[in-house]
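Reminder to self: tokens first, then the designed residues, so the page reads top to bottom the way the pipeline ran.
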């Protein structure tokens, strides 16, 4: 749990534009935080179109200017939620769990109607690529190898240890993979692989759920899917009240 006197900076990168839902979530959390024992001291924004450079600039500015004890990374297409932040706040610890990810969902078919959603937390299989944490366990703090930067709470000690282990390195420089398909490796995966070299473990709280805003096609495929799933609505509503994921019967 974050200590009473410790403070948090909220930081994000964008391309000059941000969704209204993002702004609404951000403002709501900032207003609600004091009533929930959370101290948000600063906000940081880096605008541009080169994400690895943006993330490095944000990280360096936050750490070098000593703005706060913790940095909450959010993506500009994520809708921040006070309940999710509360779970991260009470899970993180500067000594044992200095970096904890929340959960948002991604898909390899971002333009499709029936996108297959997976949580953006992974196991690292090295040259064999990455493996999604699936199915997602309910309301657990789990250890993982990789995650995205869409919702990530980080303590200052993470940067300190990484700089000591990898002096004068960019932590986010993208590169070509070394696997069988020689795939491109993004800046978030690069960061966590370097973090592991510094001996730092990553955790994720599977109950810290936030919305990930993406475009999709409202076509006949979606129409058919929606109405075929109509009978599940009551069950989904019931599980939302208990803040738990629903696992279909096996």
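Designed residues (250 positions):
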């Amino acid at each position: 749990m974050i200590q009473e006197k410790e403070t948090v900076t909220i930081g994000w990168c964008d391309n000059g534009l941000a969704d209204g839902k993002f702004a609404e979530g951000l403002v709501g959390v900032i207003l609600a935080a004091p009533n929930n024992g959370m101290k948000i001291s600063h906000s940081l924004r880096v605008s541009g179109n080169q994400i690895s450079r943006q993330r490095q600039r944000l990280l360096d500015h936050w750490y070098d200017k000593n703005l706060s004890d913790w940095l909450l990374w959010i993506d500009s297409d994520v809708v921040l939620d006070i309940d999710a932040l509360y779970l991260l706040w009470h899970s993180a610890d500067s000594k044992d769990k200095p970096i904890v990810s929340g959960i948002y969902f991604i898909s390899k078919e971002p333009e499709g109607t029936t996108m297959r959603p997976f949580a953006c937390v992974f196991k690292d299989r090295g040259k064999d690529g990455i493996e999604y944490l699936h199915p997602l366990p309910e309301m657990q703090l789990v250890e993982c190898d990789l995650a995205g930067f869409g919702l990530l709470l980080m303590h200052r000690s993470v940067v300190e240890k990484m700089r000591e282990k990898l002096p004068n390195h960019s932590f986010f420089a993208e590169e070509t993979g070394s696997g069988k398909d020689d795939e491109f490796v993004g800046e978030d995966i690069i960061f966590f692989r370097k973090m592991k070299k510094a001996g730092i473990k990553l955790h994720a709280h599977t109950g810290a759920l936030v919305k990930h805003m993406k475009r999709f096609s409202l076509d006949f495929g979606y129409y058919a899917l929606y109405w075929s799933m109509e009978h599940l609505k009551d069950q989904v509503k019931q599980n939302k009240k208990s803040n738990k994921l629903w696992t279909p019967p096996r």
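The mean pLDDT is 88.
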